[in-house]
Amino acid sequence: MFKSLVKSIGQLGHAVLDSSPEGILLADDEGNIMYANKSYSLICRSDGQKRVGKNILKTNPHGALTEVLLTGQPVFGKKHIPLGAHTEVFSNAFPIHIGDQFVGAIVFFREAAEAINVLGELAKARKDIRFSSNISEQIEQARYDFTRYDFSNIAGKTQCFKKSLALARRVSRTDSTVLLRGESGTGKQLFAEAIHNTSTRRYQPFINVNCAAIPDNLLESEFFGYEKGSFTGAGQQKIGTFELANQGTIFLDEIGDMDLRLQAKLLQVLQSGTFRRLGGTKEIKVNTRVIAATNRNLEELIAKDLFRIDLYYRLNVVSIEIPPLRERIDDIPLIARNLLPKINCRVGRVIKGLEDEALVKLANHHWPGNIRELENVLEKASTLCDGEWIMAEDICLSPLPSQMPESIVSLEELEKSMISRALQKFGPSLAGKKEAARALGISLTTLYNKLRKIQDD
Fold first, then answer.
1. Sigma-54 factor interaction domain: which residues (predicted)?
2. 40 inside domain
3. Is there a contact between 64 and 31 (Cβ–Cβ < 8 Å)?
């Protein structure tokens, strides 16, 4: 029956599917692939027609299409690498029924929502085809899930980072407010999305607001919305981000840059779960989880009367410190391996990895821009390198910034910084630690004691 269905779509239907920028695979209820569109071949860099006739249960037992065939349930935002591809994709897959009979499944990868719309139009033309739940709801769900990250996207094995990751995993199972702390470029948004996507709110909206990027006079209306006519230019009602994130999560990035007056209003929402739109009289009740992030020292801002201490306590229910990349030098090969598939897709090349000398060069850099800087360096190297492997000469690093701190720091922090720099320079091996201890003017035993203390802090 499914073969006749695929055939009945006809040349026009195939032309529509082939024109889609998303990769599409159709399989019958036994897992036999019946159709692959042209975008499948372009994304996977392999002939999609060679997949037709193969069984997806054998060729890709962990993919989204296989999961749907085994469970009969839709799958949203599954991250994986298709067979023979060098690029990671996000897949959305759905069971297909004719009448009440389950006849197969379909998968869309990359920007799935538009492809689902195309199939929705085909479904209207074929009244006996229906998706297993409301198509418009699935389209909205695909839009929410396509760009999500979970903890499988976060790479790291150093002890300090594993502690942060373990805490984030634990808090994701709760509804507690989270404060993510760390330098710019350390991956705070990635942590926020992973926490949301592992929580019970995973199928609800995740709304990101950068408090530093929106002018203070517009941030209130961004948060809470406004009623029509509430001020000049308010020609229609606007729904704020807290209301849009109802039942989901709002991520307040750069919370330390928020205006004091707005901090008071945010505190009220956190305490009562209610607010009013600008110009409105009605109290709006929301159930929105808050994850905040900052690269600033909130305690110093409180001392300078630039941040409310009561808001600090409301936000600081669970605080997660994300260490900078210079304290995670051993993680660079793992992070690079995770970043390369995305970079390959962006630059249109297949870079397999980095030579050892290139990794050594990366390990000796100070990384003031953290993972964001590493990603930019790798993208430039991927664009300029001649072969499939990045060599040391392909890597262009910015000169190190001045090592002198711009402000006074504690001796303990300065000691941590000097130990970190010494290990970056000489390496984490036993020989490297001996050289680091010699450069620091301490014994190897003292160095180990200090490293244990840093890890325990």
1. 154-383
2. yes
3. no
The answer to whether residues 92 and 108 touch, using CB atoms and an 8 Å cutoff, is yes
Domain carrying residue 212: 151-321
DSSP assignment of 4-34, as one string?
HHHHHHHHHHHHHHHT-SSEEEEEETT-BEE
- Share of the chain residues as helix, strand and coil, in percent rounded to the nearest 5: 50, 15, 35
Residues 219 and 157 in one domain: yes
Higher pLDDT, 71 or 310: 310
Are the C-beta atoms of 420 and 324 separated by less than 8 Å?
no
Which pLDDT tens digit goes with each residue over 133-172?
A: 333 443 344 334 334 578 877 888 899 999 999 999 999 9
Burial category of 320 from C-beta neighbours within 10 Å (exposed 0-12, middle 13-18, buried 19 and up): buried
Same domain, yes or no, for 299 and 255? yes
When comparing pLDDT for 80 and 243, which is higher?
243
Give the strand pairing for 249-253 and 289-294: parallel
Is residue 156 located within the same domain as residue 258? yes
Residue pLDDT, tens place only, 351-383: 889 999 999 999 989 898 899 999 999 999 999
Residue 455: what pLDDT? 66
One domain for residues 141 and 160:
no
Dihedral over alpha carbons 27, 29, 31, 37 (to 10 degrees) = 0
Q: Which token pair is 273?
A: 């779960």
Query: Is the whole model's pTM more than 0.70, yes or no?
Result: no
Examine the domain organization and report whether 182 and 238 are in the same domain: yes
